[in-house]
């Protein structure tokens, strides 16, 4: 049965390597017949969480911006994929802000079960994405029906589009293709 795959690209850089990696994952997931939507946080208004917890009672955030529509898409997705550049050994600030703003999901009957992480960075050492992975795992741990399903880390890329031609794109494609 086809799954609804939501990919959230958190880089705001034009032609970003993490978004190119996300597109490769999306192509793979589509190849297997899944319904895929890629949302970019570029040009989106997403304010910081105020910590008021009104969302726990209302089922949605009281802040009126683009985060509410994205959270609604997250609620109805079977698979969530986060794509982020690594900044200072951690996920992008845009990604963390979106994760915080998805707090209404905690009390709702969310559909997602599998969560993936796609990361790119200038440095290429294996440990570079560990902070982002820990942050995503912390988010997943709050959702008892969800699990971390896999990751692709692509290091050694600093300028836009530099990832093109990398074997990491094939790795992301194959990971997406394996969703069924």
UniProtKB/TrEMBL annotation:
Membrane-spanning residues: none
This protein's record includes keyword RNA-binding: no
Protein origin, superkingdom: Bacteria
Residues in NADPH-dependent FMN reductase-like domain copies: 4-104
Pfam families the UniProt entry points to: FMN_red
Organism in which the protein naturally occurs: Ruminococcus difficilis
PANTHER family listed in its UniProt record: NAD(P)H-DEPENDENT FMN-CONTAINING OXIDOREDUCTASE YWQN-RELATED (PTHR43278)
Keyword Ligase: no
Cited InterPro entries: Flavoprotein-like_sf, FMN_Rdtase-like_dom, ISF_SsuE-like
Signal sequence region: none
Name this polypeptide is given: Flavodoxin family protein
Coiled coil: none
Molecular function terms from GO: oxidoreductase activity
Keywords attached to this entry: Flavoprotein, FMN
């Amino acid at each position: 049965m086809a799954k609804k795959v939501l990919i959230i690209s958190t880089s705001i850089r034009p032609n970003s390597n993490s978004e190119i990696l996300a597109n490769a994952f999306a192509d793979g997931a589509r190849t297997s017949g899944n319904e895929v939507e890629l949302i970019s946080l570029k040009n989106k208004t997403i304010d910081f969480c105020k910590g008021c917890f009104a969302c726990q009672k209302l089922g949605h955030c009281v802040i009126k911006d683009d985060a509410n529509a994205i959270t609604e898409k997250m609620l109805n997705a079977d698979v969530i994929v986060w794509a982020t550049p690594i900044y200072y050994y951690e996920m992008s600030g845009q990604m963390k802000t979106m994760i915080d703003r998805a707090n209404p999901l905690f009390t709702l009957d969310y559909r997602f079960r599998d969560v993936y992480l796609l990361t790119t960075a200038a440095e290429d050492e294996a440990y570079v994405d560990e902070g982002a992975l820990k942050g995503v795992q912390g988010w997943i741990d709050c959702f008892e029906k969800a699990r971390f399903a896999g990751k692709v880390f692509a290091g050694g890329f600093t300028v836009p589009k530099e990832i093109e031609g990398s074997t990491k794109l094939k790795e992301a494609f194959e990971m997406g293709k394996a969703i069924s």
